[in-house]
Design goal:
Elements lengths: L15 E2 L13 E5 L4 E5 L3 E6 L7 E3 L10 E6 L4 E6 L6 E7 L2 E9 L1 E2 L2 E2 L3 E21 L10 E5 L2 E6 L2 E7 L6 E2 L4 E8 L3 E10 L8 H20 L8 H13 L1 E2 L4 E2 L22 E2 H13 L3 H18 L4 E2 L10 E3 L10 E3 L10 H15 L6 H17 L17 H19 L8 H18 L1 E2 L4 E2 L14 H5 L4 H15 E2 L2 E2 L11 E2 H13 L3 H14 L10 E2 L6 E2 L5 H19 L1
Antiparallel strand pairs: 1-7, 2-3, 3-4, 4-5, 4-6, 6-12, 7-8, 8-9, 9-12, 10-11, 12-17, 12-18, 13-14, 14-15, 15-18, 16-17, 19-20, 21-22, 23-24, 25-26, 27-28, 29-30, 30-31
Helix pairs in contact: 2-13, 3-4, 3-5, 3-13, 4-5, 5-7, 6-7, 7-8, 11-12, 11-13
Length: 608
C-alpha cells in the first residue's frame, strides 16, 4: 500500500483555482490549521485567515469570517489578480505553505503560529511570509478584527510609536516589513504591495489579553517561522511509528497536537464552533471543550505515537477534573464545568443556525465516560507507566459507580436527547469493569472490590448478549427492541468484547445499512440530518484489521483516503457522501485519532 496515503502526507496538491467562495464562504476542505499549543487559526486557500480565537482556543474569535462572511473579522493576504493555488504543510510540520500563480508570476505564502526554542511563546504570534518565486505579483492585505457579534467595537490607538488595535480586552499589533505601506482606520488595516522574484515581505500579528504586550521586530518574527518549523520537525522525528504510512500517521498526530491546550493539558474536541453537520441544519455545536471520550481516545493515540509527555499531561488533567467535578461528560479547557447553550447573532457557516457557545452535553450522563477513562488508564499502564495512590483511589470509586449505574438509561455516545439502554453504553460499562479488574490484577488498583467488579462485568456481558443482539438483523442493535444500527459498535472489537462471529456479522450489517460509498453514517435514519462520520469509517478499518480481515481493512482505508483527498490533511467531523464536501467542526480530533489508531493497528499487523 506504499504511497496510498499521499493525500495526508502534506505534499503539494495539484494547481486549482484559487479560493473559490460560494456566497462568501470557502469550502471547509480549503482550510489549513495553524496552532501554537494555545489557539488554532484557520487559513483559507485564498490567503484569508477566517478563524482565530485569541488568546485561547475557547476565547471569543478575533477573526470570525468563517461564520459571518460579510461582517466577520479576517486577515487577508491574497493576489489582486486571478490565481491558482498549490498548498501543503511542510513535511512533518504544522507550518503551512501556499503557492499562488497568476499570469504575471508566482509567489509563496508561508504561515506559522510561532513558537520559540523553549516552547510556546507567552503571547500569540502569527507570522505570514510572502516570497516572490518568479515574475512579479501584486497582493492585497487586509486585517479587519471581528466585532464579537457586535459586542465589541474595534479601534486603534497610538501607544508610544506603535499603532495598537483593541477588541474588547484583546490588545494587538499588526507588524509588517518596511516595503509595505499601510492605511489604518479603527475598523481595518489595508495595503497593496508587490513581490518580485527573490523578494520577501512579512506581515504578522502579536496579541494578548489583559497583559503587557511584547513588540518583537519583524525580522525576529520572520526567523521564528523557521524556528517553529524546526521545532515541529524535531517533535515529529520522535514519533514512534514505523509503518508504511508514517508520514500520514504523523500528519494526523500533528493535528491532534494542535488541539492539546498546553496551559492546562486539556484536549479540545475541535477548534471551532457551530460548523454544521448538515448545511442549513440545526446540528451546530461548540466543540472547543474537552470531552472525556475524545480526550481519552486522543491520549491513547498519543501513546500509540510514543508521545508520553502529551499523554501524561492530558491523563493527569482528566483525572483531576473527575476528582474535582465528578464523572461529567465534558469540561472547559481550564477545568471548569462547560456552560449551557448561548446563541450568537451571526449568520453562521453557509447560513446554518444557530451559532452558539456552550454545549448541552454538560448536563447529560453518558456511561461511556467510565469505559473511556478506564481504557485510557489501561493503555497508560500498558506502556510501562504507574498509577499513583490518589489516582488509583479515584478510579476505584469510578468503577464502583459504574457497577451501580450500568442498568440505568443514559444519553449514549452520540449524546441523544432520548435516554435509552444504548448498547454501546452497556459495552462501555463492561469495558470499564474489565479494565478495572485487569488493573487490580496488575497491582495498579486496590483489590478490595475486584471480585465485585468481575461479577458485574460478566453480568453486563450476559445482558448485552441476551438483550442487544437481533437475530433478524444478525447484528448488535442500537438499543434493545430496536432494529436500528450504530456504527460506534465497531469499537467493541477494539475493547475486546467476546464473540467473534457476532462481531463480524455486526460489522457486515453496519457496512450494508450505514455505509455510503467509502463513508459511514453514525446510526440508522440520520442521513437526512447530517453527513457521514469520518471516525466511524476508521473504526471499521481498525475493527476489520483486528479481526484478521486485512484485505477488507486495506480496501476500506484506500477508499476513504481517496475520498478525503480534498485539502492539506486537516479532517473535519463529517463529509457529505454525495459531494465529498467536509461538514462539522475542524480540525476534528475524533477523526484524526481514529485515523491514527487504524494506521497503528495495520502497522502492528505488518509486524506480526
Amino acid at each position: 500500500m506504499s504511497g496510498l496515503l499521499d493525500a495526508l502526507r502534506g505534499t503539494l496538491t495539484a494547481p486549482a483555482p484559487g479560493g473559490v467562495r460560494l456566497d462568501g464562504y470557502l469550502a471547509l476542505e480549503d482550510y489549513g490549521a495553524l496552532g501554537d499549543g494555545r489557539s488554532v487559526a484557520l487559513s483559507g486557500a485564498d490567503g484569508s485567515i477566517d478563524w482565530w480565537c485569541v488568546p485561547n482556543l475557547d476565547s471569543p474569535p478575533l477573526f470570525d469570517r468563517l461564520l459571518d462572511p460579510e461582517e466577520g473579522g479576517r486577515f487577508v493576504v491574497t493576489p489582486t489578480d486571478s490565481f491558482t493555488v498549490e498548498r501543503r504543510y511542510r513535511p512533518d510540520s504544522n507550518v503551512l505553505e501556499t503557492v499562488f500563480t497568476t499570469a504575471t508570476g508566482s509567489a509563496k505564502l508561508t504561515e506559522s503560529m510561532n513558537s520559540g526554542t523553549a516552547g510556546r511563546l507567552p503571547w500569540a504570534e502569527l507570522g505570514r511570509r510572502i516570497e516572490g518565486l518568479s515574475g512579479s505579483m501584486c497582493f492585497r492585505m487586509e486585517m479587519r478584527p471581528g466585532r464579537r457579534a457586535d459586542g465589541a467595537s474595534p479601534y486603534h490607538s497610538t501607544i508610544g510609536k506603535h499603532a495598537v488595535f483593541h477588541v474588547g480586552s484583546v490588545l494587538g499589533l499588526l507588524l509588517h516589513s518596511d516595503g509595505i505601506a499601510v492605511a489604518r482606520t479603527d475598523e481595518a488595516v489595508t495595503a497593496e504591495f508587490t513581490v518580485a522574484n527573490g523578494q520577501r515581505e512579512v506581515v504578522a500579528i502579536v496579541a494578548g489579553e489583559d497583559e503587557p504586550l511584547v513588540v518583537p521586530t519583524i525580522d525576529r518574527i520572520d526567523e521564528r517561522i523557521d524556528t517553529s518549523d524546526a521545532e515541529w520537525r524535531a517533535w515529529s522525528d520522535r514519533v514512534e511509528h514505523n509503518g508504511p504510512h508514517r508520514a500520514a500517521f504523523i500528519r494526523s498526530v500533528l493535528a491532534l497536537k494542535l488541539l492539546l491546550f498546553s496551559p492546562s493539558g486539556a484536549i479540545a474536541a475541535a477548534a471551532t464552533t457551530s460548523l454544521p453537520e448538515g448545511v442549513g441544519g440545526h446540528k451546530n455545536y461548540d466543540y472547543r471543550y474537552a470531552w472525556i471520550r475524545d480526550a481519552g481516545y486522543t491520549i491513547k493515540a498519543f501513546l500509540a505515537a510514543g508521545a508520553q509527555a502529551e499523554a501524561k499531561a492530558a491523563f493527569s488533567w482528566l483525572l483531576k477534573r473527575l476528582a474535582e467535578h465528578g464523572a461529567r461528560v465534558c469540561y472547559t479547557l481550564d477545568g471548569a464545568v462547560v456552560p449551557g447553550l448561548r446563541e450568537i447573532e451571526v449568520p453562521g457557516y453557509r447560513r446554518s443556525t444557530p451559532v452558539q457557545v456552550g454545549n448541552a452535553a454538560t448536563d447529560q450522563h453518558q456511561h461511556g465516560i467510565y469505559g473511556d477513562i478506564f481504557e485510557t488508564a489501561a493503555r497508560f499502564v500498558a506502556c510501562g507507566n504507574i498509577l499513583d495512590a490518589s489516582s488509583a483511589e479515584l478510579l476505584s470509586h469510578l468503577a464502583d459507580q459504574c457497577a451501580d449505574a450500568w442498568r440505568k438509561k443514559d444519553a449514549g455516545i452520540w449524546e441523544l436527547e432520548e435516554p435509552q439502554h444504548y448498547t454501546m453504553s452497556k459495552v462501555s460499562c463492561w469495558q470499564a469493569l474489565a479494565r478495572a479488574v485487569e488493573l487490580a490484577d496488575e497491582g495498579q488498583l486496590p483489590t478490595t472490590c475486584r471480585e465485585r467488579w468481575s461479577r458485574e462485568r460478566d453480568r453486563i456481558a450476559g445482558w448485552i448478549d441476551e438483550h442487544c443482539w437481533s437475530e433478524p438483523k444478525q447484528a448488535f442493535v442500537f438499543y434493545p427492541g430496536s432494529d436500528r444500527l450504530d456504527a460506534s459498535l465497531a469499537l467493541m472489537v477494539r475493547f475486546g468484547f467476546d464473540g467473534r462471529e457476532r462481531l463480524e456479522k455486526t460489522l457486515d450489517a453496519i457496512d450494508a445499512e450505514l455505509g455510503a460509498g467509502p463513508y459511514h453514517y453514525r446510526y440508522s435514519d440520520v442521513a437526512a440530518e447530517e453527513g457521514c462520520f469520518l471516525a466511524c469509517t476508521f473504526w471499521m478499518v481498525e475493527a476489520r484489521a483486528l479481526l484478521g480481515q486485512r484485505d477488507r481493512a486495506e480496501q476500506s482505508l484506500v477508499a476513504i483516503t481517496r475520498a478525503i483527498d480534498r485539502g492539506v490533511g486537516v479532517m473535519s467531523e463529517m463529509a457529505d457522501p454525495r459531494s465529498g464536501a467536509f461538514l462539522g467542526n475542524l480540525p476534528q480530533g475524533l477523526s484524526h485519532l481514529a485515523h491514527v489508531m487504524a494506521l497503528d493497528v495495520l502497522a502492528a499487523e505488518d509486524d506480526c
